[in-house]
Amino acid sequence: MSKLQAPHQLPPQKSNKKNLLFILGRETTLSLAEIKAFFITKNINFDIFYYKENKLVLSVEQNIDIPEMMKLLGGTIKICEVADQIQTQKDELAKFLNQYISTGKIEFSINGFTALGIETKKILKQLGRSARYIESKNTATVIFNNLVKGGADIEICHNQVFITKAIQPIEDFSKRDFGRPGRDDESGMLPPKLAMIMLNLATQKNESIIFDPFCGSGTIITEAILMGYKNLIGSDISETAISDTIKNIEWIKNTFKINDSNLRISIFQSDIFDITKKIDNDSIDAIVAESYLGKPLRGSETKPMIESQAMELKMLYTNAFARFKKILKSGGIVVFIIPRFRYKEDWIKIECENEILKHGFINDSILSEEKHLLYWRTDQHVGREIWRFKKI
Fold it and tell me: How far lies 48's CA from each of 5, 59, 69, 288, in Å?
């Protein structure tokens, strides 16, 4: 793997490699970490050539099913493949599209290059082809016009042309978020996209035993099922949470037609402090969890109130890691969310890394230059820090 670069010109595609462009989600650093973790888990060699803003270009081995890869990534909006070194001149684009869509009407978009799209359409008409240029405002436009399978959605990066081969299934994410029967809007919901990212950051094989000790309504468990994990354990102190998780598991299996013959799932009620009585020592490969984040903030809280809550949560988390140490296998991974709280223009953070390390862990971030990764929207009072630790 190479270090991140920003070349003036992307290198040519090698015969045994495939240059791919990833359009990243809002939290671009988190998306980058997820992609790196995905390739590490799949044992796929890759080289990063370019990473700036929301664009990542890398080279990977050819035997990758791009639509299937997209189903397993929570933080990527598009995956595009380089178009055989086509240059960005309108004549070259028109020639390419004339061959790429050999029959019928040519419907295409060029993201961010309206003038180029209009000129390309004119040349296509001169070539005797019926063409429609669609200004791509967002991924919904691409999906609505069926440009991935029925047309061509084009991205341009450093004078190279990339064709979109897969796009984030936004309708499926919405269904999994808002359509499931067990929801607890009062306590806050872990977004399915973030649950998927966290599972990827854990870098586990499908047969690994994954445990969520704060399962809530089961988002991490249900996303793990959809991603192909076979051995899952979930627990929570709340009886309602356990009921919601069980309902959501059945809903996911039925809605998405999951073959559960190889699934081994255990869901039970437990306080985190009793977890070592219910799970064997040295038996878990990875813990992936969002714990209790504290009382929902409205923006009117005083600084001492928030600091008090942060101290209480620090005690909960450090005590939880003492239990994690016992039940994890040697080298076991914890992907864990620690909240930070917005107070005016500053953050009130929960500083518990040193206490966690004292319990027998190391910080094992996918990106060595980032101790943790942030998931946050500017209108939120709570930010989620995603940490990755390894048991030593």
Answer: 7, 7, 17, 27
Residues 24 and 139 in one domain: yes
* Judgement on whether residues 150 and 238 belong to the same structural domain of the protein: no
Report the distance separating Cα 205 and Cα 210, nearest Å.
Answer: 10
The domain of 75 spans 1-168
Alpha-carbon span 73 to 305, nearest angstrom: 37
177 and 158 in a common domain: no
CB 241 within 8 A of CB 183: no
Beta bridge partners of 234: 212, 267
β-sheet bridge partners, residue 136? none
Residues 321 and 240 in one domain: yes
CA distance linking residue 91 with residue 33, whole number of Å: 38
pTM over 0.90: yes
One domain for residues 150 and 9: yes
Find the CATH number of the domain harbouring 10.
3.30.2130
Kindly report which listed range (23-27, 171-175, 193-197, 305-309) carries the lowest average pLDDT score.
171-175
Query: Which residues have CB under 8 Å from 302's CB, separation 6+?
Result: none
Q: Is the dihedral of CA 309, 382, 359, 372 positive or negative?
A: negative
Q: Are the C-beta atoms of 58 and 21 separated by less than 8 Å?
A: no
Q: Report residue 173 as tokens.
A: 């994410």
Could you tell me how many residues make up the chain? 392
Q: Give the CA angle between residues 344, 346, 352 to the nearest 5°.
A: 130
Residues 6+ apart with CB under 8 A from 253: 225, 260
Q: Does one domain contain both 93 and 209?
A: no
CA distance 136 to 55: 17
Q: Domain total for the chain?
A: 2
Alpha-carbon distance values, 204 to 69, 190, 253 (Å): 16, 20, 21
For residues 128 and 277, membership in a common domain is answered with no
List, for residues 282-309, the tens digit of each pLDDT value. Answer: 999 999 999 999 999 998 999 999 999 9
For residue 369, what is the DSSP state?
T
Residues 102 and 137 in one domain: yes
346: CATH: 3.40.50.150
| Farthest-apart Cα atoms in the chain, separation | 75
